[in-house]
Amino acid sequence: MEEAKDAATAKLLIATLQKYGYDLDDARSSSSTSSSSGSLSGDEAEEARGSGALRQSRGASAAGILALRERKNQQSALHIAAKKGHLDVLRALGRLPRVQDHLDAGDRHANTALHFAASSAKPEAPELVAFLLGLGASPHAVNVRGQTPLAIHIMTARTDDAAITKLLVAKLATSSASADSGLAAPSLNELGNGTTYLHMAVERQLSAIAGALVQGGASINVPDQNGVMVSDVVAKKLLVKLVCVMTEGSQAAPPDIVRGRCKICRQPKGLLDPLRDCALCGRAVCKNCSQKASDIRSATSEGGHAAVPLKDKDAGKFCTVCCTVKLLRSKQHRDREGFNKKLMGCGMK
User: Which domains occur in the chain, in start order?
Assistant: First the structure.
């Protein structure tokens, strides 16, 4: 009974794959098909190869379908479904036995199905990514160029939409070390091919994607292989957007970073005016380009931020950009709260 059900499932799925034009073959028997058609030429050889692949596919079990590969780039049905945006096919493949064994299999260039879903410009791309991640696809998989699905997404994004970035960042945050490697999962701030995800997003002026990265823990103060930080090159307009999603303590620069000049006025550090890291954006700033954090917190109703009263020198500093953002957001919040009170007699939560 089970064998008959498996055969029926395989037959139906193979018919669906052929309908969509999936040219899959069994790699184990492709050599025999090639040798038998080697004496033919032109259309005869192509027809022989096609019929051989069709016979091999018809003989495959439901689970065996996942092992079938396209000849040129060695892509499986999972790869092709993700690349073409066929969510219905992907869901059908996801119900096959042992699908987890094939999720992170690479094609000829070591791209996984998640790489193709993350780089897709199809409207269904976020759903494809979410479905593959739900099945257990690894966001840490790298292709032959050392690129993860998130790196591929940032490099190929045609619109500044953060939906896929948020899915991948959330998975990266919750994923743990693989059982066989015993290594901790890499963070958003580790270099890949000499750069970080945030450097890539800022370079391409993808503000929404950059914001999602910062919200997930990416720092503007991590240098790339050339020693350049995002905080050195980011435009002020984009910096303001990034500051709006930052949390205090998330942007601390690495301890070995040399703080030689103020990040705002570019004046060198003086003996009587040491640079201090901004408590929010983490940039090293001088006295003239910063204000006491305690003053700003008081002005923005954040006086209870510290559980223990701190001396002014220990309370930290906010750079002028972060001060402006905090004050403006606090004013906007108070204005909205006042409007709600007048309109409905209640405050904002």
Answer: 258-349 (3.30.40)
